[in-house]
Known about the structure:
Layout: E1 2-10, H1 17-30, E2 34-36, E3 41-44, H2 47-62, E4 67-75, H3 83-96
Antiparallel strand pairs: 1-3, 1-4, 2-3
Amino acid sequence: MLVAFSVTPLGTGTDVGELVAEAVRVVRASGLPNRTDAMFTTIEGEWDEVMAVVKEATDAVAARAPRVSLVVKADLRPGTTGALEAKVETIERHLAG
Length: 97
């Protein structure tokens, strides 16, 4: 499955980059395929392992913020691996054609 999620600390001021980096650090340490962009971090893996990483990343931010907003979007497609790269490659192929 692919899970795109965003963890936003609330009540910590306008500069949240340092706290968001804590969540991304957890994702990267997980060893799961992942990509971070300006709005979301997307990770790929099995349900239990992906959701455990989302929880750990959220907990890392919550440890330093009085309130946390979490947005999650999931694409569940059993038997599929490599979707993190394949989906982007498909779009690039269509753009080139």
